[in-house]
Amino acid sequence: MQINVTVIIINIFAILGIGFSFYKNKEKSVKALKIALKGTINMAPAIGIILILVGLLLGFFKPELISKLLGNQSGIIGIAMASVAGAILMIPSLVAFPLTASLVQSGASIPVAAAFITTLTMIGFVTLPIEIKEMGKRLTFLRNGISFIIAVGIALIMGAFI
Question: 63 with 106: CB under 8 angstroms?
Fold first, then answer.
């Protein structure tokens, strides 16, 4: 089993942060940890369902197909498909990053992964009605359009340098 250095570093910082928090104020730290635990428990069913769906999808779509549709040879079409999927889907980042890593391990290219993640986090197709109500139709479509263009640009830049 290979240990990821990044995971170790992140966990060390998390442990140091919790230790510092307890040093500064034990009561607030305990309250914060209880809130975090409650949030984790509330999110667990949704995350479980998404992970099951991801597992099923990866089971149905062989790495060769993923590589063909989303790999380096897919070019701008692969980036476009990932961008549209990211813009439409509403997946928590906690699930999106491991999902994207699984896709990359199955043959998806880095630019496609970048397009998926950036559109997923920057564009809210599902939340459009709320955004239109709060900011107006013009500003909402302008923000989402510019975000989409930027996300595709990021993917293309990632493809040029990686």
Answer: yes
Distance (Å, whole) CA 150 – CA 55: 30
- Of residues 116, 106, 110, the one with CA closest to residue 62: 106
Q: How far apart are CA 119 and CA 152, in angstroms?
A: 8
pLDDT single digits (tens) 79-92: 999 999 889 887 77
CB-CB contact of 64 with 136 (8 Å): no
Phi, psi torsion values for 89, nearest 5 degrees:
-70, 150
The model's pLDDT over 61-82, given as tens digits with 9 standing for 90+, comes to 777 888 888 888 888 898 999 9
Amino acid at 141: F
pTM of the model: 0.69
Spatial CB neighbours of 104, under 8 Å, sequence gap ≥ 6: 110, 113
Q: Are 102 and 72 in contact (CB under 8 A)?
A: no
- Other Cβ atoms closer than 10 A to 139: 12
